Amino acid sequence: MTKPAASKRHLPTSPLKAPVVPAPKFFAVGDQVTHDAHGLGRVIGVEEGIAALVDFGSTQMRILSPYAKMTKL
Asked: Which branch of life, at top level (predicted)?
């Protein structure tokens, strides 16, 4: 089994541009969201920077940050 490749740091003297780091996603109570696996839902609780509690109708899920599969509508 091999280890995943570590990201290389950007050197200040490099002629190439530094990779853009995406801004962290923030959700508020009442936001309507969509999740790749669970579908449409509404945020019913937020733990700042840690997780969001989302009601998907049939179930409630605690979605952990960085919310890769969840977007605000």
From this structure: Bacteria
Dihedrals φ, ψ of 9, to 5°? -80, 155
Q: Is the peptide bond before 66 cis (omega within 30 degrees of 0)?
A: yes
CA separation for the pair 51, 61 (Å, rounded): 10
Beta-strand ranges (E) seen in 1-73 are 32-35, 39-47, 51-55, 60-64, 70-72
Q: What percent of the chain has pLDDT above 70?
A: 92
Residue with tokens 């919310």: 67
Q: In this structure, is residue 5 part of a structural domain? A: no
The whole-number average pLDDT for the span 6-25 is 79
Give domain status of residue 58, yes or no: yes
Domain range spanning residue 54? Answer: 32-68
